[in-house]
Write the structure tokens for this entry.
Amino acid sequence: MGAGGVIRDGAVVVEGNSIIDVGKSDDVKRRYPRYEKLNASGKVVLPGMVNAHHHAAMSLLRGYADDLPLQEWLEKWIWPLETHIEGYDIYTGALLTAVECVLGGCTTVNTMYHHKPDFNEAKAFAEVGLRGAVGHVCFSWRKDEDKRMLLDLAQNWHGKADGLLRVTVDPHAAYTVDPAYMKELHSVCSDLNERFGNPQLPLFWHTHLAETVDEATKVSQAFHVSVDRGVVEYLDDLGVLNQNVVAAHCVHLSNREIRLLAERGVKVAHNAVSNLKLASGISPVPQLLKAGVTVAIGTDSSCSNNSSDMFEAMKTTALLHKGFYGDPTLMSAETVLRMATTEGARSLLWENAIGSLDIGKRADMVIIDFKKPHLTPVYSEVSHLAYAAKCSDVQTVLVNGELIVDNREVMTINQYRVMEMAEKARERLLTRLQA
């Protein structure tokens, strides 16, 4: 995914946390004869994938409430159980997701959940060595708490873990955040950016937008405002849409709203699997791309997906739009692979550091074993990555130059202990719910 395209029999040179050279293997070996080597013969090296929309801690709720409409799923099942979730549960769920992600070749995750000062998603990502944009989700019913948590998150985690972590401000959605608070959170993000951000690592906004067909009606009923021209135009009228916004879903959009997203530079995180499972609809991704909108791929939570599998998300994205529009040329293998890497990095304002194997970028790299029956023969590596590769084909993962996964074992944490922690957390949650 770098400037050189596909380099067969190639090599990547890493010093510290950065890529310092990329080229043909013979040439590179002559220039760096004494460097330690990772043998990737018969394998493919690509940049770590970027999951542009997730709720990492919700892996604890995987399979808890399936086959329900979004509103019923949230209001009758998820939110009631979440009232019993404590900081250590959030930390445990995020550990589980981080382990799942790195084993699946995903090195960066944009997550939105409830922040707690003691145990939280940022702490979990740091311990596993996963790069992440970590936010606190905000609601109108807890404004003071939200602002305290955002300050704690920014003070303690933005730019920390050797630059792996950054902080986001996350209004949940237009129907749960009133207009005045939406504008206030826009100002809060700017203020926190001035205090803790920098041009290379700014804080940004992360929100749900136009996910369901009745979202405009829900906003109007909740806050007694006019949303006749759609939720995107409603937010634009509030002055909160710009190039520092990642909008998840963007399913129900008018042509005018698509143009508006492009004009404002809003980044879209497409969650094909979750949108299908919750029957939310199909985002007009081909039209968004044609309009010049940056579109990345997300999985959404493991409660609504039910996994963090970016290979599955890529394939579903490609096939969904081909089938829906009746055009096999839409969403090519290269398009969806770029959405999962370079466009993912761009959506999180991280393209200066990640998303491709180029000199000067951070060494977030994935090595995939192609010596598999389902990856043989090879006419196109890109085709296999988009349509045939599985999470289980990932052999080695580096993040920031550090070896995080080696021969499918997580090197930074005991993955089996994390699984045990998650089972115990599930038992605690159900006990509290039933008390």
